[in-house]
Amino acid sequence: MTTAKPVLTTPHPTGPLVFPNPPEDPDDKMTNFNKMARTGNVHYLAQHLGHPETTLVAGEHYVSPQFTSTMAGLRYPDLLVAFEVDPAAYYRSNAYVISEQGKPPDFVLEIASESTWREDVGPKRDAYAALGVGEYWRFDETGRFGGRLSGEHLVDGVYAAIEIDELADGSLQGYSAVLDLYLAWVQGELVFCDPATGRRIITLEDERARAEAERAARIAAEAELAAERVRVRELEEQLRRRNS
Fold first, then answer.
1. Long-range pairs for 158-164 at CB < 8 Å and ≥24 separation?
2. Which of 12, 70, 178, 220 is deepest in the core (most CB within 10 A)?
3. Cα–Cα dist 158/177, whole Å
4. Average pLDDT across the chain, whole number
């Protein structure tokens, strides 16, 4: 994301300021769509983490220490996760306001693009540390913009690197203690994996495969039932002829 220019907001008629939507960068928007919306990553991560009444999985809205009338210097991560917060307040304010939620986000992730990656590894990193964000991750499908996968966790107010392992197939993965998940770079795709199973969390492809398997099983069962009915009718006909 590019650094936002100052924007004046209008007070909500029944309460505090409502933040505007961040400015759009076409290059960044397409990158985020490909890695988040198209794959269903945000939806299925939220499904996996559960507790939607207190767990927020969102992104592309401002993170601010408090309500403010200027957006200068504020950041808007591609993905944000916060536990034990009020998701409804986030949507009312159109932003994650730390003073309103009572704590900083637990996790943020930025997806690199050619126009944003220098901000991701510099000013954004400093800003998230200053806000107290517990983990900061960066993902780049190409590896040309600051590295394919990197993660850091906050230690005494300073980010320290999270170990990233390269697997035999060339994939990269690192463990997020905040999410209790592995984040992985797999052939240019962002994948979340459950350490308990060693498998990725459910995805759109998994849903489609399950639906197709259920459909195939239903068709097979209906075919078997139809065949059984034919066999019953044939037996009844044989008995009828024998007794006539």
1. 158/129, 159/125, 159/128, 159/129, 162/135
2. 178
3. 17
4. 85
